[in-house]
Structures are given as structure tokens and as C-alpha cells.
Amino acid sequence: MQQKISLKLLPSQAATDKAFIENIAKTTGNKASEITGYHILKKSIDARAKIIWINFTVNAFINEPFHKRIFQEFDFPDVSAAAKKVIIIGGGPAGIFAALQLIEQGLKPVILERGKDVRARRRDLAALNREGIINAESNYCFGEGGAGTYSDGKLYTRSTKRGDVNRILNLFVHFGADENILYDAHPHIGTNKLPAIVTSMRTRILDCGGEFHFEKKVSDFVIVKSEMKEVKTSDGDSFPGDFFILATGHSARDIFSLLNKKNIEISAKGFALGVRVEHPQELINSIQYGSNNPAENLLPPASYSLVEQVEGRGVFSFCMCPGGIIAPASTNEDELVVNGWSPSKRNNPYANSGMVVQVEKDDVIKYYLQSKKDTPDFNSPLLMMNFQKKVEEKSFNAGGGMFVAPAQRMVDFTEDKVSGSLPGCSYLPGIRSALLKDVLPGFINDKLKTALKAFGKKMPARNKLTNYFTNEAVLVATESRTSSPVRIPRDEAFLNHPQIKNLFPCGEGAGYAGGIVSAAMDGERVAMAIVTNRK
Ligand SMILES: Cc1cc2nc3c(=O)[nH]c(=O)nc-3n(C[C@H](O)[C@H](O)[C@H](O)COP(=O)(O)OP(=O)(O)OC[C@H]3O[C@@H](n4cnc5c(N)ncnc54)[C@H](O)[C@@H]3O)c2cc1C
Fold it and tell me: Is the domain of 254 the same as that of 378?
């Protein structure tokens, strides 16, 4: 028979298969020899108290032959002769999952991607990390798989109502991800594994008769009587289609400018801005786990999630990467943006996380009025985008060029003291001591200072090491591409742009997603809206 049971185990009780089976047997009242196998259905770590527990839901096979987990199956038919063609601008998670869904529904997707395929892209990332040379079309944000390919690959989302999270996770497994993402409370793929998964998705799209064109940067739209007829690419090509999905991500500033120039409605949107914080991983482990040592492989490197309200604005940790690396996520020369990733084993000696403040339009207007230097058009839909760019330029200059990032130790930052020395840091282009108050707008700076001190109390010292608020931590500027600074409107029911009946804004860049899974779900949603629309 099969029996679904809950287990609450010490890390040591879950460390080996033998110990695990013994605990299943104890719970079901059987002998260990009677347990022929098991499937883990859910797994989460509870590190809130001194004793750390790992909670499992397990389907145990008792006195019956064990069979392997049966995975969800997907049917991708040949769509090469499909009557309708859907042009997808942007090959990130939103664009790729839209393409897969369209194929399942019998429509032909044509993806136009400004960047290169994952392999060629890797060389451009190496040049950025090692030589400080950026390719504006091929970087951490642009290229096959979008910002998702060389991302951290954390696959949890709070947007569970926007689509079928389980289906997205099953698709990832179908294309090569480890099955543990199906049951882990905080599923994570890791940067080293994502490129192969993305390649396998592209291969399937091509095998089914879809198209995936690289180095095709869409630079113009041809619209006749409220209908998109074709898009033009910067190399002079044009791509006609029946439907168009715009899934260009939060960093496609040229697309936002093009929409604005063509009087296609967009609006300024709030986003979050701040720094990336890096601590020694050992310190975060000691705070979160006390004397339990992840080095014994019983527990994964510890993570954290922090939030504090300061003067009506949320200050929160973002995209925390245990055992991770801080990455240069800029898309242009003269702009410095950081983000974070980690390999599947999360085995680097540092723990990094974005530490950002929610920024609304009012904050930015007040900032410009107080600074009295610039007077931008406060009604411009590009107000927030231009503000974001301005902070990124300041950061680039403060680092002195070549994507060296301005940095400050945490306590020094709160005391406006230049750090005399900086600790080791995972950011490969290098860091340079600077006063971050000269980079960040005052209202961000002040809220970060208050929140960091509060986070020291929320994550107190254990094992004679220090708490979260420590000069062992370094702040690296700036974390600015947290979500899109622009929203592209769409009809609530049909999901098309209100002015253009066959243009479908999609994913993070349009303001409908934040992260890989929610972008993928939005891609699927838009694809289904097109399928329904066609009928
Ligand atoms: C370093 C890093 C780590 C991250 N870690 C995580 C994580 O752990 N978990 C998580 O959920 N999210 C993470 N993210 C965020 C996540 O990658 C994004 O939320 C997600 O990729 C958004 O998907 P998207 O398809 O909407 O847009 P994008 O992924 O931004 O894709 C947009 C695509 O459009 C292309 N494009 C832009 N303009 C044009 C044009 N004019 N013509 C043709 N193509 C164009 C771009 O090249 C890009 O490939 C991370 C991001 C980075 C940079």
C-alpha cells in the first residue's frame, strides 16, 4: 500500500536514505525492510527555534513494489504549417513560456531576441566580469532566456493566483531541472544549470516548427488602423505577424522610449532601489542556525528575508543568494547595476541580497523639487525610468569606470564614514571605497540606514559572532533593476494594449510579473488570451 505521512526530523535524521527510511517506518508502525521506497511531496526547513527541524510530507510505499515518480506530460505538436503566426519580441521566461504554450495550442511562435544564444552570451559575461567591457546587446539582462538564464534560478513566487505555478515547475523539470523543485518550499535551480534548460526549451520550439532568431533587435513597429502589421529590426529586417507579444523585460529602455515616441500609452511605475549587501556566509549560518553547521551537509547554506516599514515605505531584502556572487547586471556603458546569483550547490563563501526601498512617483517628484538641479517633466511616463538611469550613472562614476562598484562597510554607511578598507567581496569587476550617500538619493539613504540597524535586532548574534548589522558586511551600489519603472497598459479581459488590438504587453517589462515564475505564468496567460481571441 501507499501511505501519505508527515515527518518532522532533525537534520541528522534526514541526512541519509537509511535514516530517512527508518523514520518513515517508525511513523507508519512498520519495519524498515517493509518500506520499499518513497516520494517526497513537500520539504521545508523550520529554523525559527534553537532546534532546527526539517518538515516533510512523504508518500511511502509499504509492502508493495516502489515505482518512480510520474512526471506531468506535455504535448508539443508540429506547428510549422499553422495558419496563424505570433511574433514574440523578447526571449526571456515570459517570451519562451508564451511560445511553448502557443505550440501546445497549435499556433506558430516566432521569437525575436536582441541578444545572443546562451553559449555566445557566456563569453560576453566573461568580458564584463574580467575586463569591465560591456556588450549592450548581450549581458546579464539581454540574450537567450533573458534575465532568467544567468539569474539565480530561485523559483518561488507570491503570485500564486496569477497562474499555475505547478505547471511551470513541471515544465522546468520536463526540460531538465532536478525534480526537487517540485517539492522544495524554496525551489532553486542555480545559474550553472539554467543555460542547458533554456537551450533545451529553444530546441523543442525549433523542432516543433517555431522560430527563434538571435541578434534581432526590434526597433520599430508598423501599425495601421490600430493594428500591428509588422515589426522592424535594427538590421533592416521586418517580421509580419497576426499577433505580437511584447515581452522585452524591465531593461529595454529603447522599447519604452519607442512606445512613448509613437504615442502608444505607457505610464510611470514605482520600483525599488537600493544596494546589494554581502556578508560572510558563515556569519549568516551562525545567525540562522546557531550551532548547527551546514558544512556537515545536513543543512543548506542559510538564507534570510527581511522587511521593515520606514516612514511609510517598505525597506526589504530582495533576491537573497546564499553562497552566491554579486553580478554586474548593467545593460549599458556608464550605468552601474548589481544583482546576485548562486550555483546550484550555493557553495561560495558569501551571502548576498538586494536591500531596497520602495520608490513611488511622489518620492521622485519631491527629490527633484528639493535638489533644484533638474526639472524633468513630472508627467512623463519615462520619469521613473530616467530617475533610475540617473542613479545608475552616479554609481558608475563613483566606481571610477570599468564597472568597478562603489562600496562601503555597513556600519560605516550608517555613520557616513568612508571605509578605510573593504572586506573581500564576490563582485568580480571589483569594488572601490566610496560614500554611498553621494550615490543614493537622500530619501533612499536615510531609510536604508534606519532599516539596517533594525535588521541587526531581527537577526541577532549567536555563537559569539556578530549580528546582521556589522562592518563585516559590505554594501555595493546600486540595486536598481528590481522591477519595471514603466507599466504598459492592457485590456483586463483580452490582455491586448487598449490602443492596438493585436499587441499583447507581457512579463516583467510591462509591469505584470516580478521574477522567473511569474513572468513565465504571464507568458502563458497572454498566449491563452491570443488563442481565445483568435476564435
Ligand atoms: C542576476 C539576476 C538574478 C536573478 N535571480 C532571480 C531569481 O533567482 N529568481 C527569480 O524569480 N528572478 C530572478 N531574476 C529576475 C528574473 O530573471 C526576471 O524577473 C525575469 O527574467 C523576467 O522575465 P521576462 O521574460 O519578463 O523579461 P526578461 O527576462 O528581461 O527578458 C526580456 C528579453 O527581451 C529581450 N529584448 C529586450 N528588448 C528587445 C528588443 N528591442 N528586441 C528584441 N528583444 C528584446 C532581452 O534581450 C531579453 O532577453 C534575476 C535577474 C538577474 C539579472
Answer: no
Ligand 1 centroid to residue 211 C-alpha, Å: 20
Tell me, yes or no, whether 396 and 506 share the same domain. Answer: no
- Whole-number pLDDT of residue 306: 98
158 and 247 assigned to the same domain: yes
- Considering the domain architecture, whether residues 249 and 103 belong to the same structural domain is answered as yes
d(CA 390, CA 405): 15
SS (H, E, C) 386-448: HHHHHHHHHHHHHHCCCCCEEEEEHHHHHCCCCCCCCCCCCCCCCEEECCHHHCCCHHHHHHH
Segments of the chain scoring below 50 in pLDDT = none
Which residue range is the domain that position 508 belongs to? 85-266+488-534
CATH of the domain at 31: 3.30.70.2700
Structural domains in the chain (count): 3
pLDDT at 292: 66
51, burial (CB in 10 Å: exposed 0-12, middle 13-18, buried 19+) = exposed
Nearest-5° Cα angle at 69, 63 to 72: 145
Q: Choose the residue to mutate in 319, 344, 482 for probing ligand 1, maximizing ligand atoms within 8 Å of C-beta.
A: 319
pLDDT tens for 112-149 read: 999 999 999 999 999 999 999 999 999 999 999 999 99
Out of 508, 517, 518, 522, give the residue to mutate to test ligand 1, the one with the largest number of ligand atoms within 8 Å of its CB. Answer: 508
141 and 172 inside one domain: yes
CA-251 nearest atom, ligand 1: 30
User: Which atom of ligand 1 approaches the CA of 321 most closely?
Assistant: 8
Tell me, in angstroms, the distance from the centre of ligand 1 to residue 420's CA: 36
pLDDT at 158: 81
Q: Are residues 246 and 303 in the same domain?
A: no
In the reported structure, the alpha carbon of residue 227 is separated from the centroid of ligand 1 by a whole-number distance in angstroms of 27
Same domain membership, residue 305 and residue 205:
no
Residue from 211, 248, 352 to probe ligand 1 pocket by mutation (most atoms less than 8 Å from CB):
248
Residues 14 and 39 in one domain: yes
